[in-house]
Amino acid sequence: MTPIERHIVDAFASEHAGVEMWTIRTRNPADPDAPDYCYLLPSITFENLAVEYGLPEDDIDELLRVAILQLHVPSHLDAPAAAQGLMRDGRPVTLGTADSTRQAREAHLARIAWVEANRVRIVAPNPSTARMVQALDADEPAEVAVDPAERLRALKASYRPDATRMKQRRADLQRLLGREV
Fold first, then answer.
1. Most CB atoms within 10 A, among 39, 64, 84, 161?
2. 3-state DSSP helix/strand/coil percent for the chain, to nearest 5?
């Protein structure tokens, strides 16, 4: 199966109900008549992924990639090939069923790799490639020229993991899972 390519055409942060949200707006160049596809991600997602799977907390590129692509991971019943080698006792190896963070990370990243190979591939924008898009972060709807590479770079530069919140998340997970995280 050939994955759909979604090219990032805009990226920005906004606040919804007191929560910082990142919007990553994508477009499928193979289907120019299709509407843009937006990923709306709470910014705390990146800290959670770092804690849950032992991913480097300062690697926002990898955290953002995983955050987006995990939304496309099918259930093992919908796509058994996505779960090959990632099952234990007939159940998928997940954060909650893994024996260790390493095992959970390996299974999760294997699913992410399957998604990239078979479902969706996110393509980062080229620098200085301005595009006309309907502004989603403006007060009034308008077509504006944006440099998606610059907007994405600025958004990623704003990411600051909160060590205190991550420490609390780790402690909560260790209690919940009954193992080190």
1. 64
2. 40, 25, 35
